[in-house]
Specification:
alpha/beta; Hypothetical Protein, Haloacid Dehalogenase-like Hydrolase, Chain: A, domain 2; 2 domains; 14 strands; hydrolase activity; HAD-like_sf; hydrolase
């Protein structure tokens, strides 16, 4: 049976270490769309940081979707309309900023098409490099941003982010969803937001079955997505605990892992 949807995380899954879609993977995904398969991108990235890749893969021409901010927004790529949206309230945003200040972590969010950050860190430019969005640094991000926001991120070294996630950040779980994307990004979203939740919502709205979907991922924010769909696939470079949860493990993002396994599952060769 043809899957209702094939879903891809972006960083370290669809994209190589050079932050691009390889030519072979691109050619393969264009071919399967021509044969009627529908693709979707699901990422912690902001919408603006996903659209270029979505259009490179011609998702706008094949009636496809993107799930940005870890599922906080679902976008129809053809007209860039928002199908569903959940935000972090200004009150919770201020609480997260205070938490980051207390623990000396850089904090950033997305506002008026830009990344806005407070503080400094040697990883502070990574999100801008990955997404292609401009970044500005402000002295008081709480004063600068006066609205609800789609997502908030704390940025710090890997060990500290892991420690914060396991301990102090758990104080927010009654009101917020928390995950790790890159090992140096601790992400805060509206309660209930996740890639898996977004997939279920899209399936309900579009009359699809989550059990007839395939999803690819590599990181902590891909756990519930991998568990939600019928066939969850971990990349060869994925976390070991994600590989254990996945139905299948393919080659790495730098070894054409996506076309390698889809050729077997779909019976479509390039």
């Amino acid at each position: 049976m043809k899957p209702d949807l094939i879903i891809f995380d972006m960083d370290d899954t669809l994209l190589t270490s050079q932050n691009r879609v390889s030519q072979k993977t691109k050619d393969y995904l264009l071919k399967v769309q021509q044969l009627g398969y529908k693709l979707t991108l699901a990422s912690g990235r902001p919408t603006e940081g996903m659209m270029a890749v979505a259009k490179e893969l011609k998702l706008d021409q094949y009636g496809s979707y993107i799930m940005s901010y870890n599922g906080g927004q679902i976008i129809d790529v053809a007209n860039q309309s928002i199908i569903a949206k959940q935000s972090v309230s200004k009150e919770n945003f201020d609480r997260i900023v205070d938490f980051c200040r207390q623990h000396n972590m850089l904090v950033l969010t997305y506002y008026e098409g830009r990344i806005v950050c407070e503080g400094t860190h040697h990883y502070m430019g990574v999100e801008s490099e990955l997404t292609g969005m401009p970044m500005i640094q402000v002295d008081d991000i709480k004063a600068y941003v006066q609205t609800d926001v789609p997502k908030v991120m704390a940025v710090d070294d890997e060990d500290k982010i892991a420690s914060m996630y396991a301990s102090e950040a758990q104080q927010f779980t009654d009101e917020l969803a928390i995950t790790i994307s890159k090992p140096f990004f601790l992400e805060f979203m509206c309660k209930g937001v996740s890639k898996g939740t977004a997939i279920r919502r899209l399936a309900e709205q579009r009359g699809m079955s989550v059990k007839n979907m395939i999803a690819f991922g590599d990181s902590a924010n891909d756990f519930d997505m991998i568990e939600t769909v019928g066939t969850g696939i971990a990349m060869g470079n994925a976390r070991e605990d994600l590989k254990e949860k996945a139905d299948l493990v393919t080659k790495s993002h730098d070894e054409e892992g996506i076309p390698f396994i889809l050729t077997q599952l779909l019976g479509v060769e390039l």
